[in-house]
User: What shape does this take?
Amino acid sequence: MNKFSYSKQKGLQALLLGLLLMMTSCSDFLDIKPYGKAIPKTTEEYQALVMEMLSGIDGNSVGGYGANELFMNNSSAINFEDYCDNVESSLAQSSNLTYYISSMLGTSTAYSYYEHLYKVIGRCNIILDNYEDGRDSEKGQQLIATCYALRGLAYYQLLRMYCEPAGTSQDQLGMPLVTDFDMEAKPNRSSYEATFKQIESDFKTALDKNIKDKAYMFTPIVVKGLLARLYFWTGHFKEAKQYADEVVAAYPLIQGEEYKKMITAEDGLQGNMLVRSDRTPSSSNMFKYLNTSIQRCPLSARYVKLFAEKDSDIRYKLFFNKRRLNTKCIFTGLRSAEFALISMESAYHLGDKEGALRMLNDFRAHRISSYTAYTMATLPAVDANEYIKTDCTGAALTPLMQAILNERRKELYLEGDRFF
Assistant: This one.
């Protein structure tokens, strides 16, 4: 839960939502009636609707009803990195590169996620409410389960993008909830808790239905990863650790050449990736095309100095060159390292500091050759010059928590994580 800045994020997301409400009524995006189109009837027709959304995640569908933003995508990952402190935006060599979050406000980007994600929700509701003939077949249940997973994921991303972080206040607002095929629905914003419960319910329904066909993407282990993310984001650390540990057990950490092969893969699934957005990207969203934009400014000295072991850390040469220009491939999706990091941070918040340290050392041993394990006494002191001063609960950083957050920052660079 490595937020760029807890207090800044609170203000930024309030601005995002405020701009959204000024520019357009949410009812525009909640209109789920497919005007001019007949409601599908057969399993094959409903399957086509679902597969179009899944193709949108893969990146090879121009349509996809906004599904390409369910795990974000390559372009979004670059934008979110630009808004944060891992790159020296002030040294950019192009006026076209996004410098800070205000570059997003006042543009269609500020509400495009809202619009696109509610389109996914609308399509899922149409399927869930109208699919009858064949619904109880094995294929039918796989389609239904996929819709629950897609809808839950859409609401999860909306929660992150447009609501304040968990625990900000007692009466936090969530998102407008639409779970039925109702063309007249114009709901107000629900509570944060109600939105959380809806996402949790959708994910658990998908999990219970046990998707076996990997073509539908949301197999049980993938849904467990999504639950880990949800619980972690909302501060339910016991549950977050439980599901994160299950993912790591199924997809153990990798190292050395196997890790290098995964990190340098420009597309497709490699190593311990569970899901990858833009797995088969369009030409304009390919890494070779987008990296020219990333390389218009160097990575920040603050970020680079985190690699204290330098060449002994496999990421030191994989992620950037001697000029501090990016060489890491963009990744948006789910991979095992994220869940190892979720587990150790959750252990810390649950009071298991020794367990968190043990997991941190194991993680670093998979990245740093001839690694010497930290002890509580040898952990680096808290860096008073860093922007983040507190953890996600508001407590002052300790050497152990800062070490965990630094490892997360290093590992998940250019994966859409730092912004959140």
